[in-house]
Amino acid sequence: MKPLAPAVPAPATAAPTEACAQCDVYRSASLRKLGVRVERWDYVVALAGNPNTGKSTVFNALTGLRQHTGNWPGKTVARAEGGFEYQAKRYKLVDLPGTYSLLSTSLDEEIARDFLLFGQPDVTIVVADATRLERNLNLVLQVLEITDRAVLCLNLVDEAKRHGLTVDERQLARDLGVPVVPAAARFGRGLPELLAAVAQVAAGGGRGPAHRLPEEPPGIRSALNELAAKIRQAYPGLPNARWVAMRLLGGDDRIAEAVRRGELGALAARAGQVSDGLLQETARPVRP
Ligand SMILES: Nc1nc2c(ncn2[C@@H]2O[C@H](COP(=O)(O)OP(=O)(O)OP(=O)(O)O)[C@@H](O)[C@H]2O)c(=O)[nH]1
Ligand SMILES: [Mg+2]
Question: Distance between CA atoms of 76 and 80, rounded to whole angstroms?
Fold first, then answer.
């Protein structure tokens, strides 16, 4: 019997070249939205940022889920989780409530702060509003005190352009020591570059010297140094002892409790394992 249609020759496939990795089409094609199916993952990625900056818009675009988005702040009140696969790695993405700071003065701030500190995401994407960069940088700097495994997603660049604002993202990346990706998430712009930057940081690259807040006031310097030294002694390997000391001096009950209950010990152990390369050696397998 004759075939109904002539056989279509298989398309010629060539191995991707180095140039392919720079191409948006190639990069987007390696994204697979996993919705809520994230039982196994290689990396955990947190989405943090001020309210109303487009975190859930980025979350939806990458996972294919439909977190509520809208034109007023405070829509995301608890953390939402979803997943995506990119260049053969599986990522669990956690959408955090919008916060102006991580000083834990409200439930939202506590949820976001606790996740960044105790959840120890492999990468934190801070979504910032390019039209209100100065205000947004407050949170960015606080996040960088906790972790340098971060990517700044400079969102709403379409709005910024409408207002005649441009941001020198290269200079900003140099100043902060983390990748900065301009984006207009509502229109899908910048997302391929964001994925590439996240993958790079997840794999341990992409960062310069971490930005740290300028010198603290001399009045508290010696107390801070003394306390930080004790914390380092008690929890060798803890990546942000100075930040913990600062919070303790600021009377942060949550951190004091974490020190008392030994929760910081678990963090230090994991940080130590990572730096020893133990987790990498076991291929960061895919946690349960
Ligand atoms: N013009 C423009 N609007 C955007 C962009 N990204 C998101 N938005 C819009 O901004 C509004 C807020 O977006 P969300 O994704 O809900 O912001 P969010 O950061 O999750 O907000 P909270 O959960 O309240 O913190 C929505 O109306 C989005 O459609 C963008 O790049 N450009
Ligand atoms: Mg949201």
Answer: 8
- From ligand 1's centre to the CA of 144, what distance in Å? 23
Query: Exposure string (b/e) for 237-249, b if CB count within 10 Å is 16 or more?
Result: bbbbbbbbbbbbe
**Does residue 186 have its Cβ closer than 6 Å to ligand 1?**
yes
Residue among 47, 56, 77 to mutate when testing ligand 1 (max atoms within 8 A of CB): 56
Whether pLDDT at 277 is above 90: no
Instruction: Give the tokens for residue 198.
Output: 């996240």
50 lines ligand 1 (CB under 6 A): no
β 89-95/80-86 pair status:
antiparallel
Question: Residues 157-194: pLDDT tens digits?
Answer: 999 999 999 999 999 999 999 999 999 999 999 999 99
Non-local (6+) Cβ contacts of 177 within 8 A are 144, 148, 207, 208, 209, 210, 211
**184 ligand 1 Cβ < 6 A:** yes
Q: Among the listed ranges 11-25, 104-118, 126-140, 242-256, which one has the minimum average pLDDT value?
A: 11-25
Residue nearest to atom 23 of ligand 1 (CA): 76
Q: Which residues contact 145 (CB under 8 A, 6 or more apart)?
A: 212, 213, 240, 242, 243, 246
| Nearest ligand 1 atom, CA 156 | 31
For the segment 19-55, what is each residue's pLDDT rounded down to a tens digit? 655 565 555 667 777 666 667 889 999 999 999 999 9
Structure tokens, 236: 């060798």
The Cα 51–Cα 263 span in angstroms is 29
* Ligand 1 pocket check for 71: Cβ under 6 Å: yes
- Return the structure tokens found at 148: 């340098």
d(CA 110, CA 97): 10
